[in-house]
Amino acid sequence: MRYIPNSEAEQAELRKAVGAESIHDLFATVPREVYRDAVPGLPPPLSEIEVRREFGRMAARNATLSDWASFLGGGLYSHHSPAFVSQLLLRGEFLTAYTPYQPEVSQGTLTAIYEFQSHIALLTEMDVANASMYEGASAFVEAVLMAERLTKKKSKVVVSEGVHPEYRACLRTYLANFPFQIVEVPLGEDGRTDSAALANAVDDATFAVGVQSPNFMGVVEDWSAAAACAHAKGALAVGAINEMFSLSALKGPGAAGMDIACGEAASFGVPPSFGGPLVGFLACRDAYKRQIPGRLAGRAFDSEGRPGFCLTLSTREQHIRREKATSNICTNQGLFALAATMTLAALGKQGLKETARQCFAKAEYVKGLIAQIPGPFSVAFSGPTFNEFAVKCGVPVDRVLAELESERILGGVPVRRLAPEETKWHDLLLVAVTERNTREEMDRFASVLRRLS
Questions:
Q1: pLDDT at 98 over 80
Q2: Is the omega angle on the peptide bond into residue 271 within 30 degrees of 0, that is, cis?
Q3: Do residues 151 and 298 lie in contact, with contact meaning Cβ atoms separated by under 8 Å?
Q4: 131 closest CA partner among 94, 159, 100, 96
Q5: Residue 155 contacts residue 207 (beta carbons within 8 Å)
Q6: By residue range, what is the domain housing residue 427?
Q7: What is the structure's pLDDT at 1?
Q8: Which of 285, 319, 342 is the last residue of a domain?
Q9: pLDDT tens across 390-439, in order?
Q10: Is 290 helix (H, G, I), strand (E, B) or coil?
Q11: CA atoms lying within 13 Å on the CB side of residue 429
Q12: What is the percentage of the chain residues whose pLDDT exceeds 90?
């Protein structure tokens, strides 16, 4: 929106309406010690043409991702997004994608949401998916709370240490005032959840068992083992996914026996953008759909048999009594769910599989290069990975990153930043490889490590 000026007469009228004697009265709550009456030393005013020209010069100083090689991951991954996705998102019809309460004027939005749900259900191999969540962390919490509603009268959540630290922190925050116990199960030496410890932690009081695959360290978990542990004690198994392209190459949580799948779908058409905005998802088995948070877009037929779309199972507190609501913090994230849907439609099955194949192959190539470097660097865990893995650094991680940045390489995410309380992981660097990385970039990455060894 462009700046809209107002005259002194209009200002006086506005002040009178709000009961303010002067402009200063509007800022009475600002502490006096930080308040300035003097006009700051700004340059003289410029015309709009001159301002645009100056902004252009400033923008030209910014580095773009195309100027750097990126191996950043840790829950957000840099994948290619088809050019038409960002262009179509600019269409005015999509810019107010709030809850489409009136189906007669919202068929386009409802169709897009229905397609998003269909894609998520197919990828996770689940029966039902909702119309998306805010992001992966709160989606994980919603999945755990959903499991509690379904099992009833149980008081314990068992979560793998391989679930993203921010997801676990979000869970602790949400459950802080509930009479629930959270038990975290450590990773084994291979980077997978310790199966014996998981089995010992799950008991008759457990209502949810949460595991992420690939986990925070990039290691592929055994969904089936987690599901078996949960079901043996009458609990529900919750599977979290950060990197959705992995589902194009690995068995989905639904096929492996998990009950609820949740996580982050930003890999499909939503750029990392310094951490957001994002697009979470949640899917489940058909038997549990009435406890799914939020709402679903469903397909119906009129009296003449013509198909149409409408919201159904809208269990938010805006729609039903608060005590009966499944959630009040979810959203249809219309714009970002649409970006994901368009990306999935453009890639198709073959595109998804090819992207996954490239991610896996390139990550294995980098792991092979690191294995050839004598000295302080090694792949931290022996378990199988998809496109991300942890590197154990015998050199301070900050120094490694600084050396990589000197070569215009964003070398990865230090585990210490995401999990500061886990001191055992402070010498680990998460390295993610996607289809965007070239052989030249991967070779340069390894050459810097070799120089430090």
A1: no
A2: no
A3: no
A4: 100
A5: yes
A6: 65-80+350-452
A7: 46
A8: 342
A9: 999 999 999 999 999 999 999 999 999 999 988 899 999 999 999 999 99
A10: helix
A11: 25
A12: 69
φ, ψ at 102 (rounded to 5°): -105, 100
446 and 389, same domain (yes or no): yes
Calpha distance 297→402 (Å, rounded): 48
Distance, CA of 226 to CA of 36 (rounded, Å): 60
Higher pLDDT: 182 or 36? It is 182
Domain boundary among 288, 317, 342: 342
Residue type (1 letter), 146: M
Q: Is the peptide bond before 214 cis (omega within 30 degrees of 0)?
A: yes
Give residue-wise pLDDT tens across range 333-344.
788 889 999 999
Whether 292 and 361 share a structural domain? no
Domains: count for the chain = 2
Bridge partners (DSSP) listed for residue 297? 311
Co-location of 337 and 448 in the same domain: no
pTM for the whole structure? 0.86
Please report, as a single letter, which amino acid is at residue 250.
Answer: L
**Within the chain, how many helices (H) and strands (E) appear?**
12, 15
For residue 450, give the nearest of 389, 415, 407, 414 by alpha carbon.
407
Q: Three-class SS of residue 378?
A: strand
Residue corresponding to tokens 């925070």: 216
Dist. CA 432–CA 388, nearest whole Å: 4
Cα separation, 281 vs 303, in Å, equals 33
d(CA 371, CA 379) in angstroms, rounded, equals: 7
Give the number of other Cβ atoms within 10 Å of residue 269's Cβ.
25
What CATH number has the domain bearing residue 297? 3.40.640.10
